[in-house]
Amino acid sequence: MKRLMLLGPSQSGKTTLLQCLRGDPLVYQKTQALVYLPDAIDSPGEYIENRHFYSALLSGSYEADIVGLVQSLDNENGYFSPMFATLFNKPVIGIITKGDIPVDEKQKAFVINQLKQAGAGPLFMVSATRRQGITPLLTYLE
Question: Where is coiled-coil annotated (predicted)?
Answer without folding.
Answer: none
